[in-house]
Amino acid sequence: MYSETPYGLPRPTLDDARAAVHRVHAEDGPRVWSHLVRTAGLDGSADTSEGLERMLAAMHDADPISRLCALALRIRVTSHTQLTLLTRELS
Amino acid sequence: MKTDLFDRLGVPERIREIAGYDLFDPDLRTSLDALAQRSAGLLEAPVSLVSVVLDTSQFIIGSHGVAGWVAETQGVPAEWAVCTHTVLAGEPYAVIDGPTDPRHADNPFLQMTGLRSYLGVPLTGSGGHSLGAHCVIDARPRIFSDVDRAVLADGAEKAMKLLDAYRLR
User: What superkingdom does the record give (chain A) (predicted)?
Assistant: First the structure.
């Protein structure tokens, strides 16, 4: 059984993406998020890995601020993946 | 996730200022890599970074001596990035010996990489926000001198001049 939070790092979720968009877009956050949910073809409730991938792709192709948000979350996803592999190799 | 920290980093005006640069231009990357290599050489450190600190992660835009998973991701979660402290302080930030420093002893990034000491100088944008940092990281405990700080501050100034040439219109 391997940790789902290697070194205490949780894998980002769709809810984390929503929080990030609301954070950096401030009062425009709800409007931008609604647009991104539609673009990604999500209903905003299915918090799956595939849903997050579709959302990150939509954020990447959206405005420059959303793109940076997606990049920051992508770094966290890749870090989580790399460190999960690393902890498996070490165990 | 670390909501309080992300809220402090994710100030909309600061993120908007970072978004005003073309951080993905390969020529900018080449120039910032060279700058990091120069600072690493001058300060005799194995690692040097030029990075922006976004709301949830540090994004490395120029580097020297980076290896392993950090090279793969080109970034570090914001709560592990020592540059986050430099950005939030808005002034030069130093760590003499991470494992014995209560602020950093539990930092997984330092534990995993074996890096111990750090000196960073903020990259300050024209809007007055600390956008990121230019830093050196060493594998040995180290007290950085005023000359070291001056060299790195010069590097940070050069990094901002390079970034200014890649502003999006």
Answer: Bacteria
Using an 8 Å CB-CB cutoff, list chain A residues near B71.
none
- The string of DSSP letters for B4-72 reads HHHHHH--HHHHHHHTTB-TT-HHHHHHHHHHHHHHHHHTT-SEEEEEEE-SSEEEEEEEES--HHHHH
Chain B residues in contact with A83 by the CB 8 A cut-off are 69
Q: How far is B69 from chain A (nearest CA, A)?
A: 6
Cα dihedral B144, B107, B88, B36 in deg (nearest 10): 50
Q: For the whole model, what pTM was predicted? A: 0.95
Interface of A with B in 54-83 (CB under 8 A): 64-65, 67-69, 71-73, 75-76, 78-79, 82-83
Question: Going residue by residue through chain B (169 aa), what tens digit of pLDDT does each one get?
Answer: 688 999 999 999 999 999 999 999 999 999 999 999 999 999 999 999 999 999 999 999 999 999 988 998 999 999 999 999 999 999 999 999 999 999 999 999 998 889 999 999 999 999 999 999 999 999 999 999 999 999 999 999 999 999 999 999 7
The pair of structure tokens assigned to B93 is 């930030």
Structure tokens belonging to residue B79: 């709560």
Domain-wise residue ranges, chain A: 10-90
Structure tokens at A71: 């990049």
Could you tell me if A34 lies within 8 Å of chain B, comparing CB atoms? no
The verdict on ipTM greater than 0.90 is yes
Q: Does domain B3-164 bear CATH number 3.30.450.40?
A: yes
